[in-house]
């Protein structure tokens, strides 16, 4: 990691990096326990919990795609402030919701606010940093911050009795309020971009360029499968463990989340150094080997062997600290300069994998049990290897490699 480059980041880039530490950290104090909360509060079964979580995530993915286009039209500042206001409203309501329909609506709004936030945040980092090396450093630091928060906050929440408690959503809302102020302050700094990142490219033309960019489409499909596999750590695995009657399941889930985050905290920059001379495709292949090992371990681990779950999560986390930063770097490398918001918004379609995983996982758990589910995710990992063989052969049109002319 080049810390000399990091010291040159403008204050607005640091707000985008440090903001996710606090917002995602408090978020992970409650969201991974959502399946347990829905089961205990409303006595929902596996597929009902999965359907509730999937509907909220799918609605967010659809909004996120259009949010990317709006990011280039309305400007980064407008979209970031709008996402922050929506998050404050959604998490505050979720802290007091006592009916399952209101719970589901608030969950959808929470997920939508995140998808509206992501494209302008990532596009802003790309806009403000002139070199590829600086942008890669920023995306690595941003992902590192997410996982420091994900490691520390849930464990602290378990110790203090906050984790898995509905009222903790007020803490998430409070963090977004502070983050909203930080964004407003940073945009007033001299180094911040002035005016809108306005783009008047017709939406029909945007869709045509994206549909013809075969490399981008293959990346989105591969990343969707990767997201589908990872999502079961926070949803299906939690359901599997909680319904098997394990003692101290909340503590075990908190430990797995801590293992996930701390593995990335300790090994992300080690893996960056090891991978720096490899191509992006080779980095993904190494990450997928680790992910495949983790899914086989989940499938074969005896239900009451706690260390088995921890070791499997460790391998998953090693793969994660390679894969997810690389996914952002891939989009940064291929996006035309005046369509960064569009490409980041469209790339967020991979979140469909996160969206459908709880429902699909709930169905598979109910019908076949946990081992069968994780044998299936192992097959998904093998499918990603096949897709990356095609990515290496994909070609791109000139429209997908050069900035489009704007109308007007």
TrEMBL record:
Membrane topology listed for this record: Multi-pass membrane protein
Superkingdom of source: Bacteria
Membrane-crossing segments per the record: 12-35, 47-66, 78-94, 100-117, 143-162, 168-187, 215-233, 253-272, 284-300, 306-329, 341-361, 367-388
GO molecular function, one term: transmembrane transporter activity
Keyword field: Cell membrane, Membrane, Transmembrane, Transmembrane helix, Transport
Signal peptide stretch: none
Localization terms from the record: Cell membrane
Pfam families: MFS_1
PROSITE patterns reported for this sequence: MFS
One CC-aspect GO term: plasma membrane
InterPro entries in UniProt: MFS, MFS_dom, MFS_trans_sf, MFS_Transporters
Major location category of this protein: membrane
Gene3D superfamilies: MFS general substrate transporter like domains
Domain spans labelled Major facilitator superfamily (MFS) profile: 12-398
Descriptive protein name: MFS transporter
């Amino acid at each position: 990691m080049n810390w000399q480059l990091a010291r040159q980041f403008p204050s607005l880039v640091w707000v985008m990096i440090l903001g996710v530490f606090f917002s995602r950290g408090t978020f992970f104090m409650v969201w991974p326990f959502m399946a347990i909360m829905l089961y205990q509060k409303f006595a929902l079964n596996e597929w009902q919990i999965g359907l509730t979580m999937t509907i909220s995530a799918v609605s967010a993915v659809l909004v996120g795609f259009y949010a990317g286009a709006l990011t280039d039209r309305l400007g980064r500042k407008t979209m970031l402030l709008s996402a922050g206001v929506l998050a404050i409203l959604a998490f505050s309501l979720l802290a007091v919701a006592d009916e399952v329909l209101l719970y589901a609506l608030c969950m959808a709004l929470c997920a939508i606010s995140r998808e509206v936030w992501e494209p302008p945040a990532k596009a802003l980092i790309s806009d403000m940093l002139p070199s590829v090396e600086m942008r890669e450093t920023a995306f690595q630091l941003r992902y590192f911050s997410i996982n420091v928060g994900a490691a520390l906050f849930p464990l602290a929440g378990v110790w203090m009795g906050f984790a898995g408690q509905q009222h903790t959503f007020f803490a998430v809302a409070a963090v977004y309020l502070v983050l909203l102020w930080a964004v407003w302050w940073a945009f007033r700094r001299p180094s911040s971009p002035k005016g809108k990142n306005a783009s008047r490219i017709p939406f029909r033309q945007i869709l045509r360029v994206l549909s013809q960019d075969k490399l981008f489409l293959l990346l989105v499909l591969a990343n969707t499968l990767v997201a589908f596999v990872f999502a079961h750590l926070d949803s299906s695995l939690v359901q599997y463990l909680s319904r098997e009657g394990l003692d101290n399941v909340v503590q075990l889930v908190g430990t797995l989340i801590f293992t996930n985050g701390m593995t990335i905290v300790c090994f992300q920059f080690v893996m960056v150094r090891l991978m720096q001379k490899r191509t992006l495709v080779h980095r993904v292949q190494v990450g997928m080997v680790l992910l495949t090992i983790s899914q086989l371990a989940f499938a074969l681990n005896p239900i009451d062997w706690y260390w088995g779950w921890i070791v499997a999560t460790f391998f998953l986390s090693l793969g994660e600290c390679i894969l997810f930063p690389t996914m952002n770097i891939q989009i940064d490398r291929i996006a035309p300069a005046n369509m960064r918001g569009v490409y980041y918004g469209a790339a967020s379609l991979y979140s469909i994998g996160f969206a459908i995983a709880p429902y699909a996982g709930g169905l598979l758990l109910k019908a076949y049990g946990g081992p069968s589910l994780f044998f299936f995710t192992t097959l998904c990992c093998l499918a990603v290897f096949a897709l990356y063989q095609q990515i290496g052969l994909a070609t791109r049109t000139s429209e997908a490699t050069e900035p489009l002319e704007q109308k007007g």
